Amino acid sequence: MKQPIISFKHVVKCYDDDVPVLKDITFDIEEGKFYTLLGPSGCGKTTILRMIAGFSEPTKGDIFFEGQRINEVPANKRQVNTVFQDYALFPHMNVYDNIAFGLKIKKMPRDVIDQKVKEALKMVQLAGYEKRGINEMSGGQRQRVAIARAIVNEPKVLLLDEPLSALDHKLRLAMQYELRELQQRLGITFIFVTHDQEEALAMSDEIFVLDNGNIVQTGSPVDIYDEPINHYVADFIGESNIIEGIMLRDNLVKFAGKEFECVDEGIRENEPVEVVLRPEDLDLTDVDHGKLKVTVDTVLFRGVHYEIICHDEVQNEWMVHTTKKAEPGSLIGLYFDPEDIHVMRFNESEAEFDARLDSYEG
Amino acid sequence: MKKSRFKWSNLYLILVFCFLYIPIFYLMFYAFNAGSTMNKFTGFSLAHFGELFADTRLIIILLNTFILAFLSALIATLIGTFGALFIYYVKQNRSKTLLLSLNNILMVSPDVIIGASFLILFTTLGTAVGSLNLGFITVLLSHIAFSIPIVVLMVLPKMQEMNDSMVDAARDLGASNFQVLKDIVLPVLSPGIIAGYFMAFTYSLDDFAVTFFVTGNGFTTLAVEIYSRARRGVSLEINALSTLVFLMALILVIGYYYISQDTGKNNSKGGGVK
Amino acid sequence: MKKYNTLFAIPYFIWLVLFVIAPVILIFGYSFLDSQGHFTLANYATYFASGKYLMMTFNSVWYAFLITLVTLIVSYPTAYFLTKLKHRDLWLLLIILPTWINMLLKAYAFIGIFGLHGSINHFLQFFGLAPHQFLFTDVGFMVVAMYIQLPFMIIPIFNGLEELDNSLIRASRDLGANAWQTFTKVIFPLSLEGVKSGVQAVFIPSLSFFMITRLIGGNRVITLGTAIEEHFLVTQNWGMGSTIGVVLIIAMFIVMALTSERKKGGKR
């Protein structure tokens, strides 16, 4: 395996009040991939980013950049650049001067700077905007200037701190494509911080899900979506029905008062577990063919599908996404395949979880 | 109904503006009086302006006043700007509040108290150091002292407007501490710094009480001179002077209005695109 | 960043110590000294024992109160109507303009206006009234003080009213309040901050003006400020002057406390 470009080894960060914001974080970042740090506000994701950028130092543990320990290296001496949440463009400079700032600091010759700024502007599709004032730009354009200002310095790692959160929905979607494409074109590592799971799923090679100062799960978007490690991840990423149940034995789980065939293994017999069923995996059928008998409570039209909320005989609530319509108050059946069931153990560590999945998935 | 009420409010405003401006115009009117009192207008004359321009003592005092304002505002702006920078970066809330309250003491203190306490201070220092004669130096120090807090108060909000991520961004792009200060912080603060300078300048021009306390025999500012002349009675030379002062203030106001209109337009333009 | 900050802020700290903290200590210290420089409580004893000083303090506070009250009554409608005007920035500048003229010049103008042969008396005579001496009276002092302070009351109230979000007024109307109810229940409470800073800006100087009392009020001691000036610069009794200064500082703190305590209540 290649040497990781950035490594965190048992990093702890405490602020003044001694409550750790990060509790013993260890991870590696490989070169050339798109990483996302995903979690709600206050989970510590921005703190990690600030430590990589050099704006704060770990209380304990070490940070390595290409094998070199960089704990005390100041921000202006690091080979990473940041796109800030509020862009942090300098209002007293025009677009050109903003982008050229880092190059001027490095005392590059004028013509090289001109050339590089031009290229960077082209890269973010703002060619010809050099003389514009920052105040004359729209939110999306400022976003692009901020990206250009960072990538023009040819950093080895680009850090993006919730850069899309200030944009409207349409623009945000467009920028997701652009960022992903940009990363692939530049071939450098992107570390993207967001609380928006859709962004994370759409763009990342690898997602780190954070909760309360810990990394709870690492994996590709598909892995994390299909096999969330616990209630928190399942709930945070995508919509889900999470029901308490009991693992009777390998490949057989009991919930909602019934026994169901499933594909999960390696869990103790009769262990209490949680079961995840994604709303889009549930199909409506008539009562006789359903694995579960439910009563429809509300039906919302969502455009691409109907969102149906219903409850089963033991009063569990179920959310279903379907293109079929149902009448509120009617009794219907829900059908799903064994593979649609995902069983989660309580308090399983990521290492245990990965080992267990490997044992039966091969 | 609504229309008539609107008229009443205008009438009220007209009365208030009359109250504000009649004394000023009264002063200016008698500046052109051929006689020598403010009671009876005996005929038009520019004689008092002639007297004014021939009065070298008054001209020198006028120059002194402006040099004093220029210097004290400059030094106060320098000290105050860095004071504001420091206060902004104080993390602990309690220390910050304490610093700000100390900063504001001179803002809220009455002039007489400032004057009297500075007089005590300078005499105490004088006995301690050897000799500190009351005069230009003590007046300059006092003017710097009472102008610093207003500079701090003008600069600090600009610091708060400048979000911290801008400093982070400059560091991130490789700027050293000094480059951050020179290229980012000071330019962004410049509107506040300029406003602070002008406030300090006008504070100095406007001051009478503090100067009156801490000046000695050798040095006088315009305000102190007017006071001593006014106590001796009416002299239409002062009216002529007021006319000039008013015209200058008027020009400054008009200039300021156009500048602010201009920047206002620019701002709204930027806001519109946003 | 921090290193530079601390280094460059050194002059600021020298200023804090020398011109903020030291003067306060000195003025308190001097209030306990007699003319020979020995410790004494005599200044305070004189202040409290002789009716003269207490009466003067009471008068000064009472006049400052009246000045503040009248300027407030005149200023609030002015500020309110100003916010309704089209070119209100320009009009506001016209309010500010007089403050750029040295207050001594303005006080001087009133010497002419108030004089026994001055304009006010011409005006009174025109209506068949007997000429009246305004110069060298307490009323004269108060009128001039009000004149000088008026802009300092109008400006903060105007700013307070300007900041007021228009949608709040619309919301109030939408919820069924009429114009008067909107004013008393929404506009006025929200502009109270401006009123308080105006009161602070007017009341404290009104206690301490000495040049106006000297020029307009006749050579009499009618405010705390005049008393301080008298003791420092005329009779050279710095101890007594400092004692009155301490009284003025205490009065100042009471005003500040009163106006900011209500601020907290309003926020809650």
Keywords:
A: 362 residues, alpha+beta, Rossmann fold, OB fold (Dihydrolipoamide Acetyltransferase, E2P), 5-stranded antiparallel beta sheet, C: 268 residues, mainly alpha, MetI-like fold, 13 helices, globular, disordered C terminus
Summary, kept brief:
Chain B is mostly helical. Helix content of chain B is 83%, strand content 0%.
Walk me through this protein's architecture:
The complex is a heterotrimer of chains A (362), B (274) and C (268). With 362 residues, chain A is of the alpha+beta class. Chain A has 3 domains: 6-226, Rossmann fold (3-Layer(aba) Sandwich), CATH 3.40.50; 240-279 and 337-362, OB fold (Dihydrolipoamide Acetyltransferase, E2P) (Beta Barrel); 283-335, OB fold (Dihydrolipoamide Acetyltransferase, E2P). In chain A, 27% of the residues lie in helices and 33% in strands. Chain A has helices at 45-53, 95-105, 110-123, 139-151, 169-186, 197-203, 221-226, 231-236, 350-361, and strands at residues 6-14, 20-29, 34-38, 60-65, 68-69, 80-83, 157-161, 189-194, 206-211, 214-219, 241-249, 252-255, 258-261, 271-277, 283-285, 292-301, 306-312, 317-322, 331-335, 342-345. In chain A, the strands form 4 sheets. A 6-stranded mixed beta sheet of chain A has the order 6-7-8-3-9-10, sandwiched between helices. In chain A, helix 2 crosses helix 3 (110-123) and helix 2 (95-105) packs parallel to helix 4. The longest helix of chain A has 18 residues, at 169-186. The two termini of chain A are 21 Å apart. The two termini of chain B are 40 Å apart. In chain B, helix 3 (56-89) packs across helix 6, helix 4 packs across helix 6 (136-161) and helix 6 (136-161) crosses helix 8 (177-206). With 274 residues, chain B is an all-alpha fold. Chain B has a single domain, classed as Orthogonal Bundle (MetI-like fold), CATH 1.10.3720. Helices cover 83% and strands 0% of the residues of chain B. Chain C has one domain (31-96, 137-267): MetI-like (MetI-like fold). Chain C has 13 helices and no strands. Chain C has helices at residues 2-8, 10-30, 42-49, 51-84, 88-96, 103-114, 119-126, 138-163, 166-174, 179-208, 211-215, 224-234, 238-267. The longest helix of chain C is centred in the first third of the chain and has 34 residues, at 51-84. Chains in contact: A-B, B-C. The interface between B and C is large, with 81 and 83 residues. Chain B: It is a multi-pass membrane protein. Chain B: Keywords: Cell membrane, Membrane, Transmembrane, Transmembrane helix, Transport. Chain B: This is Spermidine/putrescine transport system permease protein. Chain B: It is found in: Cell membrane.
